[in-house]
């Protein structure tokens, strides 16, 4: 097909329902004759509103709370009525402007965007370079332009960078080799606990000596856990890796003598700059370089550590993709049987993917331990695996820049909620936006996936090409094949 | 011996609950080949609806006759939870039908996060205790051990749970084998495209599968509430994983297998806690999941999957 018309099949093939707000999509498919009529729109909106009434009745309308003498009920019919009204109004507007008109608003917008995308074919490359340049100067940018709040922003940048690194690590396993891993957090935990335990038992071990050890141990665990699941594929593999992740967490939680159980491990040493500690006074980093001591130095240093670790992950992945093993991963992702018939050793291919992904997870884990100074099994729940996987999949499987974009969107976007204090003036003083963090995260995960099942960056560029390089759009990739 | 029998009874009770949830997993997997990750949270939703209905009936309307109350609670919970099951399918899975395999799994995980946090936000994070409702039981065995007398109790609660499960299973088997809906479901399970060509409304059948799964999960939710007397927004995750283990152990796609697997998982968990360590009971369940999937992927009663090129 010509490269000029890749958007047309998507709009007609995909069941409508991408951009709608979550609750508003409860209707039956509309009958053809009153598709664009006002009455049909109204009826449809009423159906959606009624559904919200049914769903919300026991959750929005009623709330049970612990009180002396058993649970007491509070009724919140106002809240339920508001929810129903909002859904009715929003659904009606969407019906009129998007779903039930001959010319949906989104189609025009989508057309404009994809036209621009075609006009700048190297957009991804330039975006990557721009983001890289910004990441290099980021700490100085924030200290210069946001004095007083730089610590908060750099902390957020460290967090996002950690997720980018984890996303890149998992991308090797899921995006390149096509092995769906729901227990990636286990390796993150192995890395964090290896460093914490080594530092606790041996005094001479610091961050820089523990880092390679933690990576090795995590890779070792990757092979151990990878070995039994070599025969599994798809959903089954996902569930077994989930089980492994949970087993490791439960063991960490219950092996009190070794891991400290739910109390976790505290007092994990901070990283040093070639032996210089980030402390005030004699012999510290600031003293050595003759600059005034500031707390922010340590954060900037931490930022650069994770930045370099992430860049290493990315470079290794990009180089490996050009090597036989990387080609084998991608072949494995596309078709395992064909891969085997061509004489590729699938066992080794899978194990290297597991081991490498786990190693980067382990690096990130020991960085996490040194940043926090305290770890406990609480930080390594299944939710964490789900978030990392969501970042990889929403970014577009196998896409490196996609991981960056979705980390910034998902993690940064959620952190933005902390700054929404002004909303409490509207919703009353008890309104706490941060409690909606995970709710919004989940809704975003569902919506992005429904809207763009192949992820935000959904074009796949094959590494190996025959004669002419063709860009494969998301719509051209055979659906339901491969992984 | 007496201890063993007691644990057996406890295991069967717990296993009934897992079995009812497992049916939802196995049906959905059979018909559209995906793991409905949010099913455990549908179970949690069901138990919250049951709790709210129970409180409304007893405190607002002042009903005191327990059998009637529980019957109303059961029906309300089944109806409202079905609406949740239907909505989840409609919002998160139907738009992705025919997409690549990972896509619905991701939305399922997303839905699971949404449901958990929705309940947490609207109902609070603290757990919800209710006083035990059905007390008493009968003693079926007595014996002496070195520690003194030991009696094997079969409580009324356990009898109700097991009896309800058996009744539901009979009704459900009839539904699948004898009714047009059941026939449509089996047709969709074998070949969705062919079923659609022969006039089966595939979308509707899949929706109804989710509705039935949700209804059974809500019954399990009510039983969980009555048996343990305390629920919170997070109960769905563990129960879901264990029920999924049960479905896999029994052979995914097979209904009697799901029930059998549920009973086995219940028994294993109870015996593990009774004879080994209670802390690692979840590890036992997870290890069984891994071992079964690795060595016996088609489960006890399942059909082996043929790999076609």
Describe the structure.
The complex is a heterodimer of chains A (483) and B (309). Chain A is mainly alpha-helical. Chain A has 2 domains: 7-109, no CATH class; 127-451, no CATH class. Chain A has 19 helices and 4 strands. In chain A, helix 5 (123-145) packs antiparallel against helix 6. The two termini of chain A are 24 Å apart. With 309 residues, chain B is mainly α. Chain B has one domain (2-295): Orthogonal Bundle (ABC transporter involved in vitamin B12 uptake, BtuC). Chain B has a two-stranded antiparallel sheet with strand order 1-4. Chain B is globular, with a radius of gyration of 20 Å. The chains are: A mainly alpha (483), B mainly alpha (309). The interface between A and B is large, with 70 and 68 residues. Chain A: It is found in: Cell membrane. Chain A: InterPro entries: ABC_transp_permease (IPR001851), LivHM_N (IPR021807), LivM-like (IPR043428).
Specify the overall morphology of chain A.
Answer: globular
> Which secondary-structure class do the elements of chain B indicate?
mainly alpha
Structural class of chain A: mainly alpha
Radius of gyration of chain A: 25 Å
Please bin the fraction of helical residues of chain B: over 70%
- Kindly estimate the percentage of residues of chain A that lie in beta strands according to DSSP: under 5%
Major sheet size, sense and barrel closure of chain A = 2 strands, antiparallel
Q: Could you name the CATH class of chain B?
A: Mainly Alpha
Element order, helices and strands of chain A? HHEEHHHHHHHHEHHHHHEHHHH
Membrane topology (chain B): Multi-pass membrane protein
Family (chain B): Belongs to the binding-protein-dependent transport system permease family. LivHM subfamily.
Keywords (chain B): Amino-acid transport, Cell inner membrane, Cell membrane, Membrane, Transmembrane, Transmembrane helix, Transport
Subcellular location (chain B): Cell membrane
């Amino acid at each position: 097909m010509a490269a000029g018309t890749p958007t047309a099949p998507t709009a007609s093939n995909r069941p409508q329902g991408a951009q709608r707000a979550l609750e508003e999509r409860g209707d039956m498919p509309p009958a053809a004759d009153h598709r664009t009529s006002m009455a049909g729109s109204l009826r449809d909106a009423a159906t959606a509103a009624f559904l919200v009434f049914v769903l919300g009745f026991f959750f929005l309308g009623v709330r049970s709370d612990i009180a002396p003498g058993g649970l007491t009920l509070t009724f919140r019919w106002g809240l339920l009525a508001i929810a129903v009204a909002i859904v009715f109004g929003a659904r009606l507007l969407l019906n009129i402007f998007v779903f039930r008109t001959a010319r949906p608003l989104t189609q025009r917008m989508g057309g404009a965007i994809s036209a621009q995308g075609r006009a700048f074919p190297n957009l991804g490359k330039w975006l990557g370079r721009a983001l890289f340049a910004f990441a290099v100067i980021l700490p100085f940018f924030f200290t210069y332009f946001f004095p007083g709040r730089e610590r908060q922003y750099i902390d957020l940048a460290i967090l996002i960078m950690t997720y980018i690194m984890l996303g890149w690590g998992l991308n090797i396993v899921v995006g390149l080799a096509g092995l769906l891993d729901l227990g990636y957090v286990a390796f993150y935990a192995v890395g964090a606990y290896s460093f914490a335990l080594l530092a606790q038992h041996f005094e001479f071990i610091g961050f820089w000596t523990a880092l390679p050890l933690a990576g090795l141990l995590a890779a070792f665990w990757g092979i151990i856990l990878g070995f039994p699941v070599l025969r599994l594929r798809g959903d089954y593999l996902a569930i077994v890796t989930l089980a492994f992740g949970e087993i490791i967490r439960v063991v960490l939680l219950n092996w009190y003598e070794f891991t400290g159980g739910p109390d976790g491990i505290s007092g994990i040493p901070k990283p040093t700059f070639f032996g210089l500690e980030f402390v005030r006074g004699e012999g510290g980093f600031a003293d050595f370089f003759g600059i005034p001591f500031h707390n922010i130095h340590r954060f900037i240093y931490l930022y650069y550590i994770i930045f370099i670790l992430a860049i290493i992950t990315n470079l290794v992945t990009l180089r490996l993709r050009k090597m036989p093993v990387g080609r084998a991963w991608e072949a494995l992702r596309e078709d395992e049987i064909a891969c085997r018939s061509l004489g590729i050793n699938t066992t080794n291919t899978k194990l290297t993917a597991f081991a490498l992904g786990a190693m980067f997870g382990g690096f990130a884990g020991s960085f996490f331990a040194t940043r926090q100074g305290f770890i406990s099994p609480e930080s390594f729940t299944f939710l964490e695996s789900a978030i990392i996987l969501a970042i990889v999949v929403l970014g577009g499987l196998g896409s490196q820049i996609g991981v960056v974009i979705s980390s910034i969107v998902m993690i940064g976007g959620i952190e933005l909620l902390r700054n929404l204090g002004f909303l409490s003036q509207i919703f009353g003083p008890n309104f706490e936006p941060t409690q909606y963090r995970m709710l919004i995260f989940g809704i975003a995960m569902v919506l992005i996936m429904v809207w763009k099942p192949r992820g935000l960056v959904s074009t796949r560029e094959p590494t190996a090409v025959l004669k002419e390089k063709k860009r494969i759009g998301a719509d051209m990739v055979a659906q339901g094949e491969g992984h | 011996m007496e201890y063993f029998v007691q644990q057996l009874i406890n295991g069967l009770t717990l296993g009934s609950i897992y079995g009812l949830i497992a049916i939802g997993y196995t049906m959905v997997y059979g018909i559209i080949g995906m793991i409905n990750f949010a099913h455990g949270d549908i179970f949690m939703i069901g138990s919250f609806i049951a709790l709210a209905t129970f409180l409304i009936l007893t405190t607002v309307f002042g009903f005191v006759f327990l059998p009637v109350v529980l019957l109303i609670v059961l029906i309300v919970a089944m109806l409202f939870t079905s609406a949740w099951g239907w909505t989840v399918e409609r919002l998160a899975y139907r738009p992705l039908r025919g997409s690549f395999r990972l896509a619905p799994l991701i939305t399922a995980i997303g839905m699971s996060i949404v449901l958990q946090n929705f309940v947490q936000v609207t109902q609070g994070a603290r757990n919800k205790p209710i006083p035990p409702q059905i007390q008493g039981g009968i003693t079926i065995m007595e014996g002496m051990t070195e520690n003194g007398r030991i009696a094997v109790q079969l409580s009324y609660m356990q009898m109700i749970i097991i009896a309800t499960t058996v009744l539901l299973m009979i009704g459900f088997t009839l539904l699948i084998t004898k009714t047009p809906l059941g026939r449509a479901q089996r047709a969709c399970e074998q070949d969705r495209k062919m079923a659609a060509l022969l006039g089966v409304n595939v979308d509707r059948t899949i929706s109804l599968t989710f509705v039935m799964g949700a209804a059974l999960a809500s019954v399990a939710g009510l039983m969980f509430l009555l048996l343990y007397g305390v629920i919170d927004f997070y109960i769905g995750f563990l129960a879901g994983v264990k029920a999924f283990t049960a479905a896999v152990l029994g052979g995914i796609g097979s209904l009697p297998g799901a029930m059998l697997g549920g009973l086995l998982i219940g028994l294993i968990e109870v015996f593990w806690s009774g004879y080994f360590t209670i802390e690692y009971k979840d590890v036992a369940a997870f290890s069984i999941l891994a071992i079964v999937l690795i060595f016996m992927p088609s489960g006890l009663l399942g059909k082996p999957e043929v790999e076609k090129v």
